[in-house]
Write a structure and sequence with these properties.
By secondary structure, the chain is mostly beta strands. The chain has one domain: Immunoglobulin-like, CATH 2.60.40. The chain has a 5-stranded antiparallel β-sheet with strand order 4-3-7-8-9, with no helix packed on it. It has a 4-stranded antiparallel β-sheet with strand order 1-2-6-5, with no helix packed on it. The mean pLDDT is 89.
Length: 122
């Protein structure tokens, strides 16, 4: 697998977390979130530079496991990468993922809080 394995320190299950478009909304689903991300009143925040988009987050617990799910208006999302942060119980937790938006293309969750530095092999 090389470098394609997810970082082990993320507070969510990176392999089963995802983002997708549902009509005019973008849904972000974080699988197996750790505490305190699942506290009542949790808010998911997308950060791009000084810009912040907030949405209430719901805990879904079903046959696929526990997920923290939030939905954002597609029209509010400019192209680029957004850091995903969850605020719950006065605690801010970085989810260890970024949301990639590229026009009307499918949205993607990328592993890591920030892009990895390019590595040039000699």
């Amino acid at each position: 697998m090389g470098d394609s394995r997810p970082p082990g320190s993320a507070p969510v299950d990176l392999v089963n977390s995802y983002a997708l478009r549902r009509g005019d909304r973008v849904e972000v689903s974080l699988a197996e979130p750790s505490a305190p991300m699942v506290a009542e009143g949790a808010v998911m925040v997308l950060r791009q530079g000084d810009r912040r988009l907030r949405s209430e987050a719901s805990v879904v617990d079903d046959a696929r496991g526990r997920r923290l799910v939030a939905s954002f208006a597609s029209g509010d999302l400019d192209d680029g990468q957004y850091r995903v942060v969850v605020r719950a119980d006065e605690v801010r937790t970085t989810a260890g993922v970024r949301l990639l938006v590229q026009g009307r293309r499918p949205v993607v969750l990328l592993w890591g809080e920030r892009p990895a530095r390019p590595q040039v092999e000699a």
